[in-house]
C-alpha cells in the first residue's frame, strides 16, 4: 500500500497495522474486566452498591475486633484467622449469589457469548478467565478482613511469628474457599440464563446444605454417634472448608463437640474439595460447548 | 479501495464439496464455492444453511465432509487465525443493555487482541464510521433497532478484519434503515477495503449492494453469479395501458402488437393481484425494449398508465429449484463432482413489489 494512496483515503477509514496480542492477552482482558465487574467497577453506579456494602460489612467487624484488642492490650485476637470466613459465611453467600449470575448469566441471557467465540479466544480461555475472576473476587472479599486483623495484631504488638503463621493459614483457607465457592456459584449461574434463578440457586445451595448438615450433625452428636459427625461435614461447602482447615491448617472446628475430622478423614475432605473444584470447571467447559454460536 | 488492489485475484472464501449433516437434517450438501474480494451476498430461505455455513467458516463447527478455506487458512486447523482477521455480526440480538456502545466495542476490540490504547482509538473511529456519535456513551438498552445494528456492525469491524461475515444485517429494520445499512455495507468494501459476506433472504436488496450473489437452498448451491448477470435476467417491464374506442381491449391490442414486434411477454404472472388482467409483463432485453413499447403504445393511440421495472423475488428461484436440482444431479452423475449453477433464465421470477419488506 503506497503512501499517497493511503493519503487519499485518510479522510475516511484508517487501517490498523499495530500489534494483535492474541489469546493470552484476550484472556487476561476478560479476566480483569470480569473481576472489576464483580465489584461494579466499569458498570453503573447502581451495580456498585451491593458489592461495596458487602465488602465494607466484611471488614468492619475485623476492624472493631482489632480496635478492641488494641484498646484492651490483649495478647490474642478475639477470633482466629481461619474462623473469620466461617462466621461471615452468610455474607460470602450473598456476595456470590449476586455476582456469579452477573458474571456469566448476563452473557448467556443477552447472547453475548457468540461475540466472544467468534474471536481468537476458545472455550478454555473464557471459562478460565470467568472462573479465575470469580475466585479472585471472593478471595479479595475474604482475605481483606484477614489483612485488617493481621495489621491490627501487629499494631497491638502481638507475637509476630504466631500472627504470621495464623494469617498464612487463613489465606490458604480462604483461597480454597474462594475456588470452591466460585466454581459452585458459576456452575449454578451458567445453567440458568435467568438471573433471578441463579441468585436463588446459589443461596439455596449454600444455606440449605449448611442448615441440613449442621442439624443432622447436632442430632448425631446428641444421640451419641459422634463418629458420624465428621463424615456428615462432607455434604456442605462451608463444612468442607471447615474440615480441611481443622485437619491441616490448625483451625478450631465449628462442628458440634469440636469433633472435627482427623488428618486421615481430612484427606477425604481435601479430595472432595479438589474434586468439586475440578468438577465445576468440567461442567462449565461442557456448558459452553453447547452454547457456542 | 485501498486494500482491494492488494488482494485482487485472491480467493477470500473457498469451499470444496462442503457438507454438514446433523442426525436428522443435512444443513449443507456438497457445496463448492469460490468467493473473491468484494461484497458477496449469500441468499437463501430460513433454514437454507446460511448460518451453518458461517459457523463452519469461523472454524467453530467442523464440517462433516469436504474442505473450506478462509483467507487461505483451513477452517479445520487454523480457526483461531481465521477469527483474528475475520469479523462476525450475529443475526440475533447480542448486546447487553446496561453498557454503552463505547464500553462494549472497546472490550470486544481487546478480545480481538488490540492493546488498550489502540482499542479505544479504533472504537471511536469505527463507531463514527457506522454513524454513532454522541449516543455512543449512553447504555445500549435505550437504542433503536437501527442503532443496535450499527453497534453490532462496529464490533465486527473494530479490529480491522480482512473479511466480515454479516448474518442478516437488515433484519428488523424499516425501509429507510435498510437502505442506510445496505449503503454502509457497500462502503465497508469500497472505502474500508474489507470484503463482505452478507446473508439475506431477500434477493432484491442484495442486488443493489453485492458484486456477486450466491443462492443456496436446502444446503445446495442453486446459483452463483455476479450481480450484473442477475440484473440482466431480472429486468422485467410492467406496462399498463388504457382502453380507447378504437381498441376496446387496449391490453390485448398491445399484447398482440408487441408480440408482432418480436418482444417476449410473460403470461398470467400477476394473478391474484389487483388489476392483474391489465398489466403486461415484458422481458426487457435492453434500452431498445423501452423504445419499442413506447412507440407501439403511441401507434395504437393508447394511454400509457404505467411502465415500470419490476424486481424479482427470491422465492421464484426456489420455485424452479426442482428443475435445477435435476440439472445438478445430472451434472454430478456426469462426473463433474460439483453442483453446477443452473443456467440463468431457467428460473422464472415472480414479482416483488416495493422494497421487499413484505417478506417478513
UniProtKB/TrEMBL annotation, chain A:
<feature type="transmembrane region" description="Helical">
    <location>
        <begin position="263"/>
        <end position="284"/>
    </location>
</feature>
<keyword id="KW-0472">Membrane</keyword>
<feature type="transmembrane region" description="Helical">
    <location>
        <begin position="167"/>
        <end position="191"/>
    </location>
</feature>
<feature type="transmembrane region" description="Helical">
    <location>
        <begin position="84"/>
        <end position="101"/>
    </location>
</feature>
<protein>
    <submittedName>
        <fullName>Membrane protein</fullName>
    </submittedName>
</protein>
<keyword id="KW-0812">Transmembrane</keyword>
<keyword id="KW-1133">Transmembrane helix</keyword>
<feature type="transmembrane region" description="Helical">
    <location>
        <begin position="197"/>
        <end position="219"/>
    </location>
</feature>
<feature type="transmembrane region" description="Helical">
    <location>
        <begin position="49"/>
        <end position="72"/>
    </location>
</feature>
<feature type="transmembrane region" description="Helical">
    <location>
        <begin position="133"/>
        <end position="155"/>
    </location>
</feature>
UniProtKB/TrEMBL annotation, chain B:
<keyword id="KW-0813">Transport</keyword>
<dbReference type="InterPro" id="IPR003593">
    <property type="entry name" value="AAA+_ATPase"/>
</dbReference>
<dbReference type="GO" id="GO:0005524">
    <property type="term" value="F:ATP binding"/>
</dbReference>
<keyword id="KW-0547">Nucleotide-binding</keyword>
<keyword id="KW-0067">ATP-binding</keyword>
<dbReference type="Pfam" id="PF00005">
    <property type="entry name" value="ABC_tran"/>
</dbReference>
<protein>
    <submittedName>
        <fullName>ABC transporter ATP-binding protein</fullName>
    </submittedName>
</protein>
<dbReference type="InterPro" id="IPR027417">
    <property type="entry name" value="P-loop_NTPase"/>
</dbReference>
<feature type="domain" description="ABC transporter">
    <location>
        <begin position="13"/>
        <end position="243"/>
    </location>
</feature>
<dbReference type="InterPro" id="IPR003439">
    <property type="entry name" value="ABC_transporter-like_ATP-bd"/>
</dbReference>
<feature type="region of interest" description="Disordered">
    <location>
        <begin position="328"/>
        <end position="360"/>
    </location>
</feature>
<comment type="similarity">
    <text>Belongs to the ABC transporter superfamily.</text>
</comment>
